[in-house]
Design goal:
mainly alpha; Rhopdopsin 7-helix transmembrane proteins; G protein-coupled receptor activity; receptor; cell membrane
Length: 325
């Protein structure tokens, strides 16, 4: 009887050890677009093109603004902040995305995955903050033009940029540590070619309540708050513009906001669309959420330099002049 009891306890111990090993996966498996593996090489062509346009476009804008003293104004300083953020977003996702589609390199270590999601989420929140700063710039320029130069001084712009940079980093900093304490199943397969907190969190074989609550808090206190403040800024701008008697002046004032409005719509529309699709899309057809995820991270960094180059005659003239030299 004693021998039988020992055998049973030993078996339970072995099973416990096996289970512990099973739930301690050290890598995640990235996925491109499920079901389209045969055409990954062709799919990689538009992805590669988007990365090239994003990196070259934002780099050109940064170079022109840095080298031309006439562009050292608040509006263009904020634009350079947006370009730096978009460059960071593109560089954060490019190695794993092209690795999956070009070389079928699917494995990523836990630490590398946590580092990638830290940069992706930090830069996303920073971009939201930069768009808010750009809305504030347009608000001051239209609603209080006589005090524009005294309000948006270079030291003040630097302080605002630093505050929002620290906010973006600080709110995301706990996420890798919260994820690191979990155990992950052996078949930890991600649905995209990059890591996001929401998806990695769901692969944990543990209680994720704290991560869910903290993630919701961070989103509301950053992106949602910024969106509401941007909306408030444009309500005030519209109120001021509609009080202008001259239609020509009214049109001229609104025309200075078009580029920023396009950037805001690109960023928030794709983000809201991704959130809606992830919650309400049919789980048997995951293609739409995957595509929306790529749109959210790849399209705004690609389109922002194009929109600003086309809409800002001063900037486009400087770019053309630089390439004609």
């Amino acid at each position: 009887m004693t021998e039988r009891f020992k055998t049973t306890r030993t078996s339970q111990y072995i099973m416990s050890a096996v289970n512990d090993t099973k739930f301690s996966s050290e890598v995640f498996l990235l996925t491109g677009i499920h079901g389209q593996e045969d055409v990954y090489l062709w799919i990689s062509i538009p992805f590669c093109l988007m990365y090239v346009i994003s990196i070259v476009g934002n780099s050109v804008i940064l170079f022109i603004i840095k080298t031309d003293p006439s562009l050292h104004e608040p509006m263009y300083i904020f634009l350079s902040m947006l370009a730096i953020t978009d460059l960071g977003l593109s560089i954060s996702t490019m190695p794993t995305t092209l690795g999956v589609f070009w070389f079928n390199s699917r494995e990523i270590s836990l630490n590398a995955c946590f580092a990638q999601l830290f940069f992706i989420h930090s830069l996303t929140f920073i971009e939201s903050s930069v768009l808010l700063l750009m809305a504030f710039d347009r608000f001051v320029a239209i609603c209080n033009p006589l005090r524009y130069a005294s309000i948006l001084t270079l030291p003040r712009i630097e302080k605002m940029g630093l505050i929002f940079l620290l906010r973006g980093v600080a709110v995301v900093f706990p996420l890798p540590f919260l994820l690191k304490r979990f155990r992950y199943c052996e078949a930890s397969v991600l649905s995209r070619s990059y890591c996001l907190h929401q998806e990695v969190m769901k692969l944990a074989c543990s209680d994720i309540t704290v991560n869910s609550i903290y993630g919701l808090f961070v989103t509301i206190s950053t992106v949602v708050l910024d969106a509401l403040l941007i909306l408030l800024s444009y309500v005030m701008i519209l109120k001021t513009v509609l009080s202008i008697a001259s239609y020509a002046e009214c049109f001229r004032a609104l025309n200075t906001c078009v580029s920023h409005l396009c950037a805001v719509l690109l960023f928030y529309t794709s983000g809201i669309g991704l959130s809606i699709v992830q919650r309400f899309a049919n789980s048997s057809s995951p293609l739409l959420p995957i595509l929306m995820g790529y749109v959210y991270l790849l399209v705004p960094p690609m389109m922002n330099p194009i929109v600003y180059s086309l809409k800002s005659k001063h900037l486009s003239a400087k770019i053309i002049r630089a390439f004609n030299k």
